[in-house]
Design goal:
By secondary structure, the protein is mainly alpha-helical. It contains three helices and no strands.
Length: 65
């Protein structure tokens, strides 16, 4: 797996990217309001990391966050 610049991801970067994808999946599920808010907050926090490391780039508004 590579980042947006074509570099191979470290094990830690790959794990962060996987967590980010898992949170995006959870955000699309029918969750209780408190869980939905928590997932959204976690996704926003992890988006900052994923974006800064150039692992992925997308607008949070496209995700509903």
């Amino acid at each position: 797996m590579t980042d947006l610049l074509g570099r191979e991801l470290t094990a830690q970067e790959a794990e962060l990217a996987e967590l980010y994808e898992r949170l995006k999946t959870l955000l699309g599920e029918d969750l209780p309001p408190c869980a939905q808010a928590g997932v959204r907050a976690a996704l926003v926090a992890l988006w900052n990391v994923v974006n800064d490391l150039a692992l992925d780039h997308e607008h949070l508004s496209d995700l509903g966050a």
